[in-house]
Structures are given as structure tokens and as C-alpha cells.
Amino acid sequence: MAFWASVASSTSDIHQSPKVMPVLNPNQRQFLHDELSNKSKLNFLVKNNARNLEDYYVRKEEVVDDPELLDKHDSFYHTTKSLLVLFQIMGVMPLRRNPPIPGLPRTGYSWVSRQFFWALFVYTLQTILVVMVLQERVNNFRDNPDKRFDEAIYNVIFISLLFTNFLLPVASWRHGPQVAIFKNMWTNYQLKFYKVTGTPIEFPNLYPLTWGLCIFSWVLSIAINLSQYFLQPDFKLWYTFAYYPLIAMLNGFCSLWYINCTAFGIASKALSESLQKTLKSDKPAQKITEYRYLWVDLSHMMQQLGRAYSNMYGMYCLVVFFTTIIATYGSFSEILDHGATFKEIGLFVIVFYCMSLLYIICNEAHHASQKVGLDFQTQLLNINLTAVDTSTQKEVEMFLVAIAKNPPTMNLDGYATINRELITSNVSFMATYLVVLLQFKITEQRGLRSEQSAKA
């Protein structure tokens, strides 16, 4: 450690040392900064008998927090608990709240917990029902090859939705430990935020919003399935019981993403307001350093969100992509063959529903990344550096470097980055496929017309 400090001090006089210092990454720069601060602090202690040490801030060592104190300031868990409980009841994500034992993470995931066995029980019952409905759907599709094309499209769409049930263990349970890490990061972050700023993070209106989204997820699922029961003659009432939890799960994923993105925006705003107050005080360099650590933790949480739910939302995007293409092609094809009917309107409703879910996820991720990244960076760039001391100037510069090197993006473990660009890329891909399919359809129609005219 002392080697780095001695190297940095020896380079202060450039004409004596022709060596060029290497470019350091943010972690190396922070390490070097701490070493220099520690060396200056020790020299100051020797010369001045340990007075006025606020100019020499060194990063504090991590300590194990009291679990009772973590629970007290875990506002995010208490306000969004209803959605977590809903996923536990549905067997989607069997997380558990650990007992308040020092050193034990507050949120955990275990393959032998009672939450997991309940999820396995619910999944088994649901799978039996899904297999029964899937068998009926496949037999109906195979035994009636002469049915209208729009009816076949409906059958294909709802058969594809049934397969999401078989992806649940891989898409959700497999990443349970990563989801627990994400929840614990939120728990630890809120207490750390309180220790640094002296004020807790408050999530206004998030509690009723979460409850409302839980109820709305199931109400919308019931409404969609009952509408299909009344619109489609071959859609039996008992089929709906297999689709209720699947559609509600898709709605719940969208609600979960919306809640997390909203929480990131609230946390970033609270951190920004505290930073503005700190900049008005005398010698704010020490606090800015701590705020930089808080911001980096917030950015890492956003990255962990995409890593923890990568399989879930990867499956989500695939279902939306496939369903939208099939429903759009089916509706246009039937319009070309028989004109517009209420069934085609039903297919357009499915397209609107899928694209709305995709838009909400991508748009909320964009807003969260902008609030945590660009808006925060703009605020730092607007600071008048000539009005602050040298230490504060250096801390602001390091803050900007940390933002540039740790972009707050939501990446699905390397598969895709969730932002507005994902919407435009999906729409362009779907338009390409639809143009090709419609070309085949128009060519087929022209061939049939030629045959009919030849026979006539």
C-alpha cells in the first residue's frame, strides 16, 4: 500500500522523474486516493496532535449491521411486500424472510424451504391442468384442419402461452439466489443511505400502488380469459383456469419491473437532494465521497436487477415477440381473405396488449437509467467548481468518472439491454417478418385467382 503512495508523491516534481504515470481505472484511483489521504493524515497527526482531521477522509471499514436496524429502515421491502407475497402464493418466486440473526442476509432463497415446497406443489397442480388443456388444444388443432384461419391463429397463440408454464423453473427458480442478492442490496442500501444523509428514503404512494397492481394483474387476467371464452366457440370455460395464473404472471412481471424502476428514480432523487444540501456547506468533500459510494451502489443495484431477472424477462420478451407477430399476421391475413370481423379486432387487442407490456418495461427502464445516470451527471456538471475548495473539486471529478465507468443500465445478463431502443428494434424485426409473410400470402391469393379464372 505504501508503495503506491510513495510512487504518487515522487511524481509531483515532473522534471526530476521522466516516468509517465499509467492511466488508472476508478478502483485503482480510489485506492490511491485513500492511501494518499491516509499518509497525509498520519503526517498531520505527528505535526498537529490530531486536531482538525476533517480534510483527510479515508473510506470507512464495512461493519455488520444490526438486523433489527435493517428492518426498521427497509421501507422498500415493507411497501412492496404485497407483490412478493403474491409471487410466493403463485409459486413464481419462493423467496423467504430470514430471522433477524446478525450476519445472516434478511432475504434468502433455499431449495429446502417451505416456500419452495409450496411453489413446487402449486406448480405441480398447475402443470397437470396445463397438460390437460394443451392436449385438448392440440387435438382440436389436428382434428379440425378446415377451420377458419383466424381460429387457427387463436389456437396457436394460446398453445404458445401454455408453454410458458414449463419454462417457469428455469426462468424463475434457477435465479432465485440472484433475486435474493438484489433484495438484500436494497435492504443494506437504505440503512447506508440513512447513515450518510441522516434521512431515510421514503417511497410515497408506492404501498397502495403495489397493492393496486397486484389486484389489477389478476383482474386483467380474468377479463382477458373470459373475453376469449365468449368470443371463441371452441374456448371452453375450464380452459380459463389454466390461463389465469399464466396471464397474471406476465402482468405481475410487468408490475414488478415498474415498481423497481420507480423505486430507483425515487432513491436517485433523494440522493440528489441530499447532495445539493451538502454542496452548500463548508468543505463538503468528505460527504461527496460517501455520496459517490452510495451512487455506485445504486448503479450496481440496477445492474443486479437485470442479472437477477434475466431469464424471466428474456422469456417475457420472446413471448411478446412471437405472439405479436402471429396475431398481426393472422389479423391481416383474414382481412385480405374475408374482410374485417370482430375476431380480427380481438387479434388486434392481443397485439395492443403485448406491445403495451413491452413499452411499459422499456420505457420505465429508460426513465430509471436517465434519472440515475444522465440527470445526476448533469447536476454535477452544473456545479461551479470555482466556488468550492480543491478537495471538493477533486471529489466532483472522481464522481463524474465513477458515473462514466459504471453506467446504470439494465442488461439481461448479456442477452439484451432494456431501453427504448429495444422497442424500435423489435418493431423493425416484426415489420420485416410480416412483410415476408404477407408477400407469401399475396402470392398465394394471386395463384388461386389465376386458377379460378382458368377454370372459368
Topology:
Layout: H1 2-10, H2 26-48, H3 67-72, H4 75-79, H5 81-90, E1 96-97, E2 107-108, H6 114-143, H7 149-162, H8 164-171, H9 176-197, H10 206-231, H11 240-279, H12 285-308, H13 310-338, H14 342-381, H15 390-405, H16 420-455
Antiparallel strand pairs: 1-2
Helix pairs in contact: 1-2, 5-10, 6-7, 6-11, 7-13, 8-13, 9-12, 10-11, 11-12, 11-14, 12-15, 13-14, 13-16, 14-15, 14-16
Overview of the molecule:
The chain has 456 residues and is mainly alpha-helical. It has one domain (67-455). 74% of the residues lie in helices and 1% in strands. It has 16 helices and two strands. The chain has helices spanning 2-10, 26-48, 67-72, 75-79, 81-90, 114-143, 149-162, 164-171, 176-197, 206-231, 240-279, 285-308, 310-338, 342-381, 390-405, 420-455, and strands spanning 96-97, 107-108. The longest helix has 40 residues, at 240-279. The chain starts with a helix and ends with a helix.
In short:
With 456 residues, this protein is an all-alpha fold. The protein contains 16 helices and two strands. The chain has one domain (67-455).
Dominant shape = elongated
Structure classification: mainly alpha
Oligomeric assembly: single chain
Largest sheet geometry: 2 strands, antiparallel
Domain module tally: 1
Helical content band: over 70%
Family: Belongs to the insect chemoreceptor superfamily. Gustatory receptor (GR) family.
Main location: membrane
Protein name: Gustatory receptor
GO molecular function: olfactory receptor activity
